[in-house]
Amino acid sequence: MALVLGAALCATAAAAQAAPASMRFCDRASPLTAQQQDRLLRFAAIVQGELDASGQAVALIARSGTDLQRFGLRYSHAGVSLRASDNSPWSVRQLYYACDEQQPRLFDQGLAGFLFGTDDPSFGHVAIVLMPREAADAVERVALDNAGALALVGARYSANAYPFSLRYQNCNQWVMELLASAWGANTDVAEPRASAQAWLVDQGYAPPAVEVGSHLLMFAGGFIPWIKFDDHPESDRFALRFVVSMPASIEAFVHGRLPTAQHIELCHDEHQVVIRQGWQPLAEGCRPAPGDRVLALD
Predict the structure, then answer these.
(1) What is the pTM of this model?
(2) I want to staple 1 with a disulfide (CB 3.0 to 4.6 A). Which of 27, 42, 88, 243 is the partner?
(3) What is the pLDDT of residues 243-272, one digit of tens each?
């Protein structure tokens, strides 16, 4: 991930944990032009409008960011969007890797800043999952509990962390362990992450393996501090396949557990926003289908 947060739209630290405004995250490499910022701000306003219209207080949210299309993945980063956030309405509580500190941090970030963390500001996707009230209330309660949310943050970060090891954690795995804590895992223990992972195994959580298909990533892992492999089973390492929590696996788990959960997907290009209600993914290229809503960005 690679994100540099500017002063006007920087992620303010979560009430649970403070950090300087100049904190640099591993989620963005290049600055945005004024036109790109304007487009993303308008897209963020549309996303917030969908959240406001939902009548809910919490949503799971994911965005495209790091380009993972070569692995067949559209979304790279997920968090929990909270209407009652102390930061601003619908800020996203999420885990990031703080490059300067070389460790994970929990932050609340406004929707605009959340969307600025993209490799391609001219094109992007956002997915929103709205849960049934009882399940949503439990997630909101745990997510807004600063001490509880921080207790689920691992000591060390790996972008491709194995979901069933305590050695590392990635941003999406933190979301999964938060859901586990909200929906049944015993958090009143010395190691709440272990309890959350055990609950997820018991509930059948099984993210599909990502086929790397090349030794290049393995080689790069020796030089990139937020990519590790030593937590994965040896058989997977030799096969160049890695089981990792990703936004798609979060959505699949939630949909399987909560069939009445609602899904909203939005995409934008340089000219328009397409909005789809339902679990059928949008077509490649941000092309609308019958029933989709289309809003101009020009």
Answers:
(1) 0.87
(2) 27
(3) 999 999 999 999 999 999 999 999 999 999
